Amino acid sequence: MGKGGQDEGMKGEREPSTTSFPAWARTVEECEAEFKVSAEYGLRSDEVLRLQGIYGLNELEKHSGPSIWQLVLEQFNDTLVRILLVAAVVSFVLAWYDGDEGGEMGITAFVEPLVIFLILIVNAIVGVWQENNAEKALEALKEIQSEHAAVRRDGKLIPNMPAKELVPGDIVELKVGDKVPADMRILYLISSTVRVEQASLTGENAAVNKTNHRVESEDIDIQGKECMVFAGTTLVNGSCVCLVTQTGMNTEIGKIHSQIHEASQSEDDTPLKKKLNEFGEVLTAIIGVICAVVWLINVKYFLTWEFVDGWPRNFKFSFEKCTYYFEIAVALAVAAIPEGLPAVITTCLALGTRKMAQKNALVRKLPSVETLGCTTVICSDKTGTLTTNQMSAVRLVAIGRWTDTLRTFEVDGTTYNPGDGSIRDWPANNMDANLQMIAKISALCNDASISQSEHLFVTNGMPTEAALKVLVEKMGLPRGYDTPSFKQGEILRCCKWWNAMAQRVATLEFDRSRKSMGVIVKSKSGSNSLLVKGAVENLLERSAYVQLHDGSVVLLDEKSRTCILNALREMSSNALRCLGFAYKDDLAEFATYDGENHPAHKLLLDPSNYSSIETGLIFVGLVGLRDPPRKEVYKAIEDCRAAGIRVMVITGDNKETAEAICRDIGVFKHDEDLLSKSLTGKDFMYMSSSDKKTLLRQDGGLLFSRAEPKHKQEIVRLLKEDGEVVAMTGDGVNDAPALKMADIGIAMGIAGTEVAKEASDMVLADDNFSSIVAAVGEGRSIYNNMKAFIRYMISSNIGEVASIFLTAALGIPEGLIPVQLLWVNLVTDGPPATALGFNPPDKDIMKKPPRRSDDSLITAWILFRYMVIGLYVGIATVGIFIIWYTHGSFMGIDLSGDGHSLVTYSQLSNWGECSSWEGFKVAPFTAGARNFSFDENPCDYFQTGKVKAMTLSLSVLVAIEMFNSLNALSEDGSLLSMPPWSNPWLLLAMSISFGLHFLILYVPFLAQVFGIVPLSFNEWLLVLAVAFPVILIDEVLKFVGRCACSSGTRRQLTKHKDE
Predict the structure, then answer these.
(1) Which residues of 554-565 are buried (b: 16+ CB within 10 A; e: fewer)?
(2) Annotated region Disordered: where (predicted)?
(3) Pairing relation of β-strands 234-237 and 311-317?
(4) Which strands, in side-by-side order, build the sheet including 208-210?
């Protein structure tokens, strides 16, 4: 029992014997004896205090979630983030050290660590915000708890006692509309019937009848506990007196609360996050190796020694040079990490959510968009997802010309909209007397109503009765009658016409013993009739006559009885819920009944008299109803099969009904053997662990009926253990734990409870299974596009690493500084990477099997391709740096316009020894509006003077990456087959990136921050000439890849033919 906010120390006192007492399998007397209470007196006040000390308050536990600081620290439990954090700290320390010298470069050095810190802070804020919303399902669960209860204590009824003060043994009175405050055993019914709406807990689509009679078995599912009412459910009919058996966390809803909390503690990372973490770990190792190699190559520049007598002596260490090469190592780390990747992924996923919203799939958690793309199993609820959750009449059986002939009419339509579908082969405006009587009983012996809310038709009352009213509307009116008195657009105009023809004067409520409902109606002529509907077998037992199609009444003989029962069996075998219709004109003492003042009224006060009143009936026909499958679902199931996605139906409904629906929608074939494909939840749980896994690995669809929350969780857990990516749908409170545990929890937007929605990753706006399949297709498309921009960004980073590595290996001055690399990774690369998220989807995207969650983002061939591209990027950026220093012209392009001095390659690679060169002088040169002079220190030509060469290197890097984004349009397709204009957003993004690069080049303040200068026209020509070959190189590599792929396919086909 839940202790609520009370001391944990009290737990030792609890001895909840109630947890093991099966009240549903015990008589009322045994239950009262167990709890030492009587229904008339209730508990004593002193006993209540004692029990509250043992069991605590009747409320759900408050789980204390992680603190804000714990959530913040969790955001740094990521390899890429940790690398960035180390790089930022080191950069800050180095910037602080350089800042002691003052000057512009000192200010510039602080930009890099501050930008990295800003990225990390934003990332942490977003992560904490998402985590903080994770436990809302538990709060929503508390909302459905009752706040007050009518309790009998010390022999007195307390009408509005706080429900949290209830203890096991309390006597509670329930009436229509009450929310049940705890799990309780019904002691006795005050009204003739009690019906409870418990769909949110069990998945049943209709209110269930309750009784005070015990059930035979102790081991029975929730649906079978007909003498129990459960916390959080609602009474929709009748009133009763109950005994509290479970409170707080021991109630069924309390168990669900625990399961949700447990599932939330074991949430796994999404497939993409796992891959990025693996990539980060590999990247860490690569960065470590490259940094070590760079230091080993350059150790000679900051650490020298002499050999004396064969031993190293006279060590000389240059702290300034050591710091310089340490900065290069930091630059390597910055270059290797795609800092813009988290932002681009978030943007792409956000765009994906908008596309999915257009297809009625509302994504609550961004990573779910990507996870949907690799879904391998969809575990779907039946009611409301695969079906409409709107009962519909599908077959009407009326009596024919003779007693042994029947007429059958098929009824179309799947909703409560009377205009949805019609009755096939119906005698419109020519209904015979038998059909008119069926319409009359359906309209008058009925308490349901239907209203229209925008485009939806909703019912108030029992779904079966609403379906009968819709049937009456489709039947129409008898010939010669119209409805001039009813306004245009009236939904139930035919039902209103029948109600105008006869007025109800008494109701014989439904009860479980006779399984029927009757009404006494007075016609306009003043005569009374009894109209009855109910279970066909029960009505036949109480019927003596049958009405033929012309209205004549004849004796119900054995032949006609057999004929009707055969029709019933055939309809029941198709999982139709059947209702029979009968009437009676000879009412004896009720022939003149007109209300409570009539002498016969006292007979109606005792429900035990109803069976005798409903005897000697005239049977007129029967109707088959069901919750019909949605029209779109059959094709959606076919699409799943083509896409390699298995569909498992997990429902609280009974086995026969669920099997019939599954055959109709294509989960099973009509002649398929379901022995190992259809099980109840209890049967599944009795299997061994290995047998369960063998069952779940079967090809094709599976069905689990009468499933409880623990069954759903076990199925999801085993599937995930087997490496499946599971999408789970649900709408009820009972679905919340499994929704939380699944890789993708999908709640229903219309019929779903708030608990289910809060526990889910995605909400279906239209509650339609086909929307899930559309969302999976969108998820696959988004993943393909994400792969495109991840490959693009990683290939760009490989190029940056190659550039810095070559710089260090050749010993030339640093060509790219960390703040420039950060700008390229975050800003310049961002728009093209985001635009790649708009690549059009492949036409056959839902014809391919789902990718495995452990599939590599980058194959060995793709990695080789980008290593080649990266090597070219390195050669191009370092090469143009060397060209500016050593060549006055290149490829016919004159570079001497700025007047800079040329040096030899040997001088450039040994620039650290400049101070020892005799007679070394450098002429001043111009760059934009700035003049550079080196009269005082010619060696500064390789530090301050490298600004133009650095600008050329940065511009080549930007240009190459823009051209490389065109290569990323398709993994293997040539630009000739997929031209740049196939994604106009990419062309726009390239323009934006070039525009941003021009901004930092030609705005003096920004140029100073990034340590660059404006370029001349000739220098831009050189940049484009050096950058463009990256397209040609990748085209050649793509061609080789296509040839290798086609030859491999041919070999497989040849091998297949040989076999």
Answers:
(1) eebeeebbebbe
(2) 1-23
(3) unpaired
(4) 208-210, 194-197, 234-237
Which residue from 179, 112, 104, 108 is spatially nearest to 142, judged by alpha carbons? 179
Contact 804, 297 (CB under 8 A): no
**How many residues comprise the chain?**
1059
163 contacts: CB under 8 Å, gap ≥ 6? 58, 145, 146, 147, 148, 149, 181, 182
Q: Determine contact, residues 224/210, Cβ cutoff 8 Å.
A: no
DSSP codes, 978-1024: S-GGGSHHHHHHHHHHHHHHHHHHHSHHHHHHHT-----HHHHHHHH
Q: How far apart are CA 500 and CA 521, in angstroms?
A: 11
The pLDDT of residue 197 is 83
What phi-psi label fits residue 949: left (phi over 0), alpha (psi between -120 and 50 degrees) or beta?
alpha
The mean per-residue pLDDT over the stretch 586-608 comes to: 86
User: One-letter amino acid identity for 478?
Assistant: P
Instruction: Give yes or no: 381 in active site.
Output: yes
Measured CA to CA in angstroms, residue 399 lies from 405, 610, 666 at distances of: 6, 26, 34
Half-sphere exposure of 543 (CA within 13 A, CB side): 31
Main-chain dihedrals φ then ψ at residue 313, nearest 5 degrees: -135, 170
Distances (CA, A) of 978 to 427, 467, 846, 973: 60, 54, 21, 7
Cβ–Cβ < 8 Å for 745, 758: no
**Catalytic: which of 381, 743, 898, 1034?**
381
Which of 429, 556, 448, 431 is CA-nearest to residue 499?
A: 448
- Report pLDDT digits (tens) over 838-863: 777 766 677 777 776 666 666 777 77
d(CA 233, CA 231): 6
Give the CA distances from residue 232 to residues 183, 184, 205, 734, 1013, in Å, rounded to whole numbers and listed in that order: 9, 11, 16, 11, 70
- 546 has which bridge partners? 554, 619
Q: Extract the tokens encoding 387.
A: 């079906």
Rounded to two decimals, what is the model's pTM? 0.66
Rounded distance between C-alpha atoms, residue 317 and residue 311, angstroms = 17
Residue 634 identity (one-letter amino acid): Y
Among 253, 224, 227, 249, CA closest to 240: 227
Region 800-808 average pLDDT: 81
Nearest to residue 442, comparing CAs of 550, 585, 618, 581? 581
Residue 165 CA to residue 45 CA, distance in Å, equals 12
Of 543, 502, 520, 538, nearest to 604 (Cα)?
520
d(CA 148, CA 171): 13
Q: Which residues have C-beta within 8 Å of that of residue 960, sequence separation ≥ 6?
A: 799, 872, 873, 876, 877, 1027, 1030
Closest CA to 903 of 920, 925, 886: 886
- CB-CB contact of 968 with 796 (8 Å): no
- Amino acid 894 reads D
The CA-atom distances, in angstroms, between 176 and each of 194, 861, 924 are 9, 69, 95
* Mean pLDDT of the chain, nearest integer: 80
Q: What digits encode the pLDDT tens for the residues 197-239?
A: 887 677 665 678 888 888 888 888 787 888 999 988 888 878 8
Q: How far is CA 89 from the centre of its chain?
A: 38
Give the type of residue at 682: K
* Cβ contact 580:567 at 8 Å: no
| Rounded distance between C-alpha atoms, residue 8 and residue 4, angstroms | 10
**d(Cα 368, Cα 348) in Å, to the nearest integer?**
12
| Segment (H or E) for 195 | strand 194-197
Query: What confidence tens digit (pLDDT) does each residue in 297-323 have?
Result: 777 767 777 777 777 777 777 777 777
User: How many CA atoms lie less than 13 Å away from 911 in the CB half-sphere?
Assistant: 24
From 613, 465, 469, 446, select the one nearest 528 (Cα to Cα). Answer: 613
Q: Are 339 and 83 in contact (CB under 8 A)?
A: no
Percent of the chain with pLDDT over 90: 18
